[in-house]
Predict the structure.
Amino acid sequence: MNKTSYQPKSTIRVYHGYGHKENLVVYGHVLAHKPPIKNRFTDNLLLNIIHLIKLFFVKPIPNKVVQLTWNNQLLETKTAKDGFFKFEWKSNDSVSAGWHPVIVNSVDENKAIVASGEGKIFIPHSTQYGFISDIDDTVLVSHSAETGKKLRVMFTKNPRSRKTFADVVKYYQMLSLAHTTPNLLNPFFYVSSSEWNLYDDLNEFFKYNDLPKGAFLLNEIKKWYQLFKTGKTKHQGKLIRVRRILEVFPKQRFILLGDNSQKDPEIYVSIANKFPQKIVAIYIRNISLEKEKPTNEIFSKLINKDICALQFKHTDEAIAHSKSIGLINFE
């Protein structure tokens, strides 16, 4: 009898991918046990603490062979040391706009399937605009600049009781319809320094609040002992992810939305100076008064002076500005 190496029970998490016929990408993780699924939403402090901690009790499986079948194409790769995998490919067939299901399988040395995970890939319509948005303190009230407040909110709230900023849902719904129609919504990409551990909770938060559906691009998965450093990962990765979106969609112009709690102003101005003809506007929520002046100084470094840059305290200021520049023109 041939001996085979021990294969721990695993689960495959497949995150929303994105792209078009010439450039498709799907991300995910292979973990040694099934991550917790929150079946009920409660403000019970103890239950929320337990749920959050469980999200960071993950055991990635490195060097695991995973396969993705796309129509008649079989793609294969291996997981990295943190269990992360990435498929990037060109489709042999045309791809219609919309959301398409994808299945990723992990296989053993005999190519037998040992686990499967299902996700979706987002193929945007060829609209005029695309939107790249941060999450924490841009859409979701997070208190990123104050560790104590941030952790208290994370531990005591669930995805349905977390708060959005006033009028941000209204604003993002307006932007999704900017210069297009309800059946051809503008694409949204949510690029955050939050970790992949929080993916399901963020998905639930966006769905529950009726925010535009889009692709999430988050940061490296963290272990339980790194929980108190959540959202503190180096921001170079965020810059790389934003750049990649712009490169994948050369026909669309983009609006960048963030806040001044961390590095969004620097990242977005750097991007705008690298792609001066592809950026229409930069919107930065002013949640840190001490960073208000430095943020305006960063804006002054924009090479293309036709790019609109606004720092705002309340969402209605951003709505009014977007109307004034003709980005949105309806109630």
